[in-house]
Amino acid sequence: MSDEATITATEPHAATGLPYAAEELRTERLLLRPLNSGDLQNGHEFERLKDVARYLLWEVHDHDESAEHLRKRIAMNRLAADGDGIVYAVELPDAEGAHGRVIGHVSLFLKKAQWAKFEMGWVFHPAVHGRGYATEATTRLLELCFDTLGGHRVFAQLDARNETSARLCGIIGMKQEALLRGSEIYKGEWSDTAVFAILEDDFRAGR
Question: What range defines the domain where residue 118 resides?
Answer without folding.
Answer: 21-205
